[in-house]
Amino acid sequence: MYALQYELTFPADYDMHVIRGRVARIGHLLDDWDGLGLKAYLMRERGVHGSPVNQYAPFYLWDTVRGMNRFLWGGAFQGLVDDFGRPVARRWSGLAYEEGDAAASRAAVAVRRREPVPDRAELSGLMEDAVRETGRLAAEDGAVLAASAVDTQHWELVHFSLWEHAAPKARGDVFQVLHLSAPGRARLPRGRQW
Length: 194
Description:
alpha+beta; Alpha-Beta Plaits; 8-stranded antiparallel barrel; 23% helix; 37% strand
């Protein structure tokens, strides 16, 4: 499993209905994308759920590198680049994935928490902690799913979760879920990824 996210941050007075309209028009295009576990079309609005910014920040869980590469290099990603410029696309290697108690529910919000891996951290213990945190989040009331991953270039952990209600039981940046494409969600490997 691989996680990927890019962020487009807009001015404070940007009309976020532009993003809502874009997702309404094109969100379905990845509903059957081969190799995609899921794509959560995420948005933050300044002042909503404590967000300091207006931002479009889709989050992906890929079950194949081929599917991810076909998305990035096969033309689909180019539409976003043509409209908004080329954002940095952050990638993380999967550590854990779990379905939540509300797995069958529609996701209303997502929470993403990024944290640095301390320089002198004992890596196996820290990664096991991330796996346990994934399980803890997935077991919370209202959790649709939870995942964790690590970026070994910047040594950063990311915890990602989807929730059926607007008051998630997770810490981090809260996003509105505009659409969820999940053609390969059932193929995402459960539990620890090594």
